[in-house]
Amino acid sequence: MATINENYLKLEKNYLFINIAKKVNEYKEAHPDADIIRMGIGDVTLPIAKCVVDAMKKGADEMGVKETFKGYEDSGTGYDFLKEAVSGYYEGFGVTVKPSEIRINDGAKSDCGNIVDIFGDDNIVLITDPAYPVYVDTNLMSGRKVIYADSNEENGFAAMPDESVHADLIYLCSPNNPTGSAYTKDQLKAWIDYAIKNNAIIIYDAAYEAFITDEAIPRSIFAVEGARRCAIEMCSLSKTAGFTGMRCGYTVIPDELTVIASDGTVVSISQLWGRREGSKFNGVSYPVQCAAAAVFTKEGYEQTRENIKYYQENAKVIAAAMDEMGIKYTGGKNSPYIWLKCPNGMKSWDFFDKLLTEANVVGTPGAGFGKNGEGWFRLTAFGDSERTKEACERIKKLKF
Ligand code: PLP
Fold first, then answer.
1. Architecture of domain 12-47+300-396
2. Does 238 sit in the ligand 1 pocket, CB within 6 Å?
3. Does ligand 1 come within 6 angstroms of the Cβ of 112?
């Protein structure tokens, strides 16, 4: 008889955004004329930069010509031209990462979720709460013990290590989804010191690094001393360049990162991950990698930054509305998310219902990201500028 991985039964029945979509669809069915503005799911809305699309078309054309056709990519870790482009991008903000330490993937979610494959199920996993749900779900799926570091109003939603607690794997996300807060160099150094002391590995999600405006906030954990000995960094072109529907990201595993196996052998994490990928992943399509490389050209960089600026303006509009209403929030400055405190002690899902039914605006209840998210709410700046302004006007008219 086939059995199942019963850890799956311990998960929330649905992924957060499926629950939200269900509620919105029910409301839409009952109110077909409602003009709903969606500021819930963190998906981009602007089209991809022209030079990036042109590069993808060129790559696709090459696939139709015998001399330039490409089948399986030899390494499955990405073409050299793209790894060199990513390495150059890091160099641009003062971080040295070798092309051979970079692995191209189909987005950060896959690697964030799959990285657990190479770590023992007996690891104690520390996740900041609230968090992007993938970290918790994928560790529960493999039956690991998960402990939490509280990100809350008191610490500005920047959880810091507790020296009295031991962890083996640590998930950090900066700028953070959902809270929009971003770690300073000193805060990251404290996490790195903690990881080294505990022989732990930090899985660092930098999916929103392109939104950092504050010079003092590091764009990569590798900008901080010691990180190469204890961290893996995951990044994505989804939010940087509108690739949510294209699918391309990259993971950086420094050569120095090792773990001692139970027989005393020193094992390279990069090699172990390479072994996993060799059996379970066949790389990213050539035209998409051509498009991704175009993001890192001067022209591509300028064009994609225009889109980011557009979203940053939306974030300012939402932040201004919160200021006007006297609602407390974090984020919006180094992040496309505004994380607001529900007025009058309202619970997240009650605030969601109020916003949906009285303003026809959809956001994301903070409670869906963990216990510390209760009473908080996430609005995204990824929408259309006029619709964002309209949503803010509607929210400002609400009575609490
Ligand atoms: N990491 C964080 C923190 C995210 O918010 C997201 C997507 O919303 C991802 C990773 C996944 O991005 P990708 O589209 O690259 O899979």
1. Alpha-Beta Complex (3.90)
2. yes
3. yes
